[in-house]
Amino acid sequence: MEIRVARNILSLNDSLANRVRAELERRDVVLLNLLASPGAGKTSLILALAKCLEGQLRIGVIEGDLASRVDADRVAAAGLPVIQINTEGGCHLEARQIADALPRLPLDALDLLIIENVGNLVCTASYDLGEDLRVVLASVPEGHDKPWKYPKIFLEPDAVVVTKTDLEPHVDYDAAAFEAAVRSVNRDVPILRVSVKTGEGLDSLASWLLARVR
Amino acid sequence: MHEGAITENLVSLVLEQARAADARSVTRVVAVVGRLSGVVPEAMAFWFRELTRETPAEGAVLDVREIPGRARCLACGELYEVDDAPWPCPACGAGGPEIVEGRELFLESLEVD
User: Fold this and answer.
1) For chain B, how many structural domains are there in total?
2) Which of A5, A60, A190, B77 is least buried, going by the fewest C-beta atoms within 10 A?
3) Residue B70: which domain range?
4) For residue B2, which residues of chain A lie inside 8 Å, CB to CB?
């Protein structure tokens, strides 16, 4: 006997993601999913943004890592509410892990919840976590060709953020080539450039974010 | 890269459907995988064999139907096939097309006894 199904293989994840989205909408919290390769500067950027937006946005963080609490400890030391999820080898976060983390966060005292996804440009792209905003980071030392190697992750983010721009004079990185590579797969996505080290571009990114949370 | 996790989802869907149909065993599973979905069919087939062991779907044939990537140029409207990026429009050269096909990842059907 043949059974017609025609259902998305990730439909269970997607329905959990929709549940997360509905819960956070009810609690008036915007969820941001931050995607990047390992070492792109996700944690440092979160901390820098939190400082920029102090007094304007109340920010909480969900840290996704294969192992350790290193990132969560840094975020907690900055005084932000944080939940660490260890995936025990899993290469991405799934909506069920976010659903489990929500009751452990002070949602009524938050405006913005940032998920720092596992460092990975492949698997993380497939999983809806219930986010309202998806931002992809690409650091200067990774090179300008990433959008060609990982086009899928550049297809639908709300913004692409180039990090570590202060390193440009020291490495073979062509900013125009990076922009062209992004545009070859995504015509319209905003591309923002920041350096946590020098503070370049942080205000513009903070304003971009503020406009989407309020 | 994450075919293990994705195939786990596929196998749960298959077993859930088989249970709902009161089936004894699953003999065939048809999955549709787009070329731009990030899922490698060979890896999915490997995980499918592993993850269905000692379940009613053990030994079932996994038929993966691949769908090529197709894009629509946002500048001139041309429809064309895409695989590895970059994806310049063959008619006008513009980049950043709208992807209209190739990201599919779904369980189409199964055959059960």
Assistant:
1) 1
2) B77
3) 3-112
4) 91-92, 122-123, 126
